[in-house]
């Protein structure tokens, strides 16, 4: 993030140099490519820096539309990835030579896998969740390379089969999980619906009970009103009977008075004054009788009014009772309907609980089946992984054997090339001797022909030596050149060897098998290295002329 590039000494971890402001933003990654070091930054630039010299200099740079996530050198090329789904291939001159399309989304990383005849690069993408393997052919070395290529292809096919089985197992597990989640969601929906129905039924039950209580209160109120009306009617009837008794009493009194007056008139007319007085008393009594009659009429009218009011009250009470009865019947009917609905809901709840229990049992059985299938899939995956590990171990052993075989062959070829080069040097020396001898011929024609033949012979030997030196220069490693006594950079090489024949590297496999016993300190040597050195000593001893 500080935009700088630091150089460190690996031996003592000392910082030797700091390149300030190497990029306009932070540095993402660095690789060794071509004749320098490539660096990628968040500013979207890729720069090439010099390795030798007192200071690091930027030789050239390329501006990209997006920052590059990773740089991976493959032979003479560099593979780069950014935000796009393509993998770009650049040469050592920072020129794009190819574009590989293998992912649906951006590529996240690259990794290089070295093989004997090929180099495999693994690329992954977090966007489309895929992993792809790319093969880059480094060289073609004949039958052994073809055999190794076939072995690599067999291993890749086995790996593809394992990946297919793993993908199928993952799909089955995902499908089972989806089915289980769908069943759980459906069961939750059914349970929620049953709870809603139960809540509605409970609410209707409460409403029916409240209506029943209101009907009971109205019925009690109607009964109290009817009792009060009957009480008032009874009081009015009692008053009417009392008034009637008073009227009968007064009527009897009038009759008695008239009888007494008749007896008085009949008995003693002399007593007219008394009769007049009695008549006056009778008139007074008659007046009082009329008043009593009027009072009786008023009481009768009041009684009739009370009876009418009682009848009206009775009719009202009857209508109220009928309405209350109708409302009670309606409420009873509603209550019956609610009870029926409650019974239906109870039955549905029982059925729902039974279904839920059956569904739980089914889910339990399904879970057990899924666990069994998952256990079987796990066992199969473990078996497949074991087979893969066994195959990898077998391929590794095969690679080690082929590596030892190739290293031995290359050493033999190197020694044979050195022997051919020595023979060519002797031939050149003989050609030079022939040329010097031809110059001493007395016959000019013979001398001219011999000189031409010696020149042609020397030129052919020189060209052949250049070709052999070119093969040694381009195809052998530095260690093999040191073993056969050849220079690291030969100026006598022809420089005409075609591209594609240069060996990119070699592999030295260390084994712990002691050859000829352990040396001092218990050190072990490899069988291939020991055989090469001993064979080289015997060859040099056998082919070195005496006295040299």
Your description of this structure?
By secondary structure, the protein is of the alpha+beta class. Among the domains are: 5-138, YVTN repeat-like/Quinoprotein amine dehydrogenase (Methylamine Dehydrogenase, Chain H), CATH 2.130.10.10; 385-543. Helices cover 64% and strands 14% of the residues. It is built from five helices and 13 strands. The protein has a four-stranded antiparallel beta sheet, with no helix packed on it. It has a four-stranded antiparallel beta sheet with strand order 7-8-9-10, with no helix packed on it. A hairpin with a 3-residue loop joins strand 11 and strand 12 (118-125). Helix 1 (143-267) runs antiparallel to helix 2 (272-438). The radius of gyration is 64 Å and the shape is rod-shaped. The model is unreliable at 139-144 and 498-548 (pLDDT under 50).
Classify the beta-strand content into a percent band: 5-15%
Specify the number of helices. 5
What level of helicity do the residues show?
A: 55-70%
Mean pLDDT: 72
Give the topology string: H per helix, E per strand. EEEEEEEEEEEEEHHHHH
User: In which order are the strands of the major sheet placed?
Assistant: 3-4-5-6
- How would a crystallographer describe the biggest sheet? 4 strands, antiparallel
How far apart lie the N and C ends? Answer: 64 Å
Number of strands: 13
Structural classification: alpha+beta
Shape: rod-shaped
Low-confidence stretches: 139-144, 498-548
Radius of gyration: 64 Å
InterPro entries: WD40/YVTN_repeat-like_dom_sf, WD40_repeat_dom_sf, WD40_rpt
Region (Disordered): 513-548
Biased composition (Basic and acidic residues): 532-548
Keywords: Coiled coil
């Amino acid at each position: 993030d500080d935009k700088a590039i630091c150089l460190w000494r690996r031996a003592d971890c000392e910082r030797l140099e700091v390149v300030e402001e190497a990029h306009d933003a932070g540095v993402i990654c660095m690789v060794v490519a071509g004749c320098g070091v490539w660096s990628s930054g968040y500013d979207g630039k890729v720069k090439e820096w010099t390795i030798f010299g007192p200071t690091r200099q930027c030789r050239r740079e390329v501006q990209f539309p997006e920052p590059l996530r990773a740089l991976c050198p493959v032979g003479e090329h560099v593979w780069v990835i950014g935000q796009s789904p393509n993998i770009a291939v650049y040469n050592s001159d920072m020129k794009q030579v190819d574009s590989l399309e293998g992912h649906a989304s951006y590529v996240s990383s690259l990794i290089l896998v070295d093989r004997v005849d090929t180099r495999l690069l693994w690329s992954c993408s977090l966007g489309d969740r895929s992993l792809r393997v790319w093969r880059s052919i480094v060289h073609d070395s004949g039958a052994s390379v073809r055999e190794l290529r076939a072995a690599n292809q067999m291993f890749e096919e086995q790996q593809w089969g394992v990946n297919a089985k793993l993908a199928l197992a993952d799909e089955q597990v995902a499908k089972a999980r989806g089915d289980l989640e769908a069943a759980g969601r459906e069961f939750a929906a059914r349970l929620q619906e049953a709870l809603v129905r139960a809540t509605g039924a409970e609410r209707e039950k409460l409403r029916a009970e409240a209506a029943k209580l209101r009907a009971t209160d109205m019925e009690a109120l109607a009964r109290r009103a009817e009792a009060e009306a009957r009480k008032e009617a009874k009081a009015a009837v009692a008053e009417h009977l009392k008034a009637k008794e008073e009227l009968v009493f007064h009527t009897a009194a009038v009759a008695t008075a008239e009888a007494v007056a008749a007896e008085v008139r009949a008995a003693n007319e002399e007593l007219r004054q008394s009769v007049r007085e009695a008549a006056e008393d009778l008139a007074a009594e008659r007046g009082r009788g009329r008043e009593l009659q009027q009072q009786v009429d008023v009481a009768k009218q009041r009684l009739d009014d009370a009876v009418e009011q009682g009848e009206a009250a009775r009719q009202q009470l009857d209508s109220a009772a009928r309405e209350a009865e109708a409302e009670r019947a309606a409420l009873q009917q509603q209550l019956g309907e609610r009870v029926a609905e409650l019974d239906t809901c109870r039955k549905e709840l029982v059925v729902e609980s039974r279904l839920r229990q059956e569904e739980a049992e089914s889910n339990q059985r399904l879970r057990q089946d899924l666990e069994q299938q998952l256990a079987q899939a796990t066992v199969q995956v473990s078996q497949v992984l074991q087979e893969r590990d066994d195959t990898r171990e077998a391929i590794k052993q095969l690679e080690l054997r082929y590596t030892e075989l190739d290293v031995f062959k290359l050493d033999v070829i190197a020694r044979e090339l050195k022997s051919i080069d020595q023979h060519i040097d002797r031939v050149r020396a003989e050609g030079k001797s022939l040329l010097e001898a031809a110059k001493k011929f007395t016959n000019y024609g013979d001398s001219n022909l011999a000189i031409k033949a010696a020149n042609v012979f020397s030129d052919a030997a020189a060209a052949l030596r250049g070709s052999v030196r070119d093969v040694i220069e381009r195809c052998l490693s530095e260690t093999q050149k040191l073993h056969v006594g050849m220079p690291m950079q030969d100026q006598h090489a022809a420089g005409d060897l075609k591209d594609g024949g240069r060996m990119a590297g070699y592999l030295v496999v260390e084994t712990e098998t002691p050859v000829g016993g352990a040396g001092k300190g218990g050190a072990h040597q490899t069988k291939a290295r020991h055989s090469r050195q001993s064979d080289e000593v015997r060859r040099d001893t056998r082919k070195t002329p005496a006295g040299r």
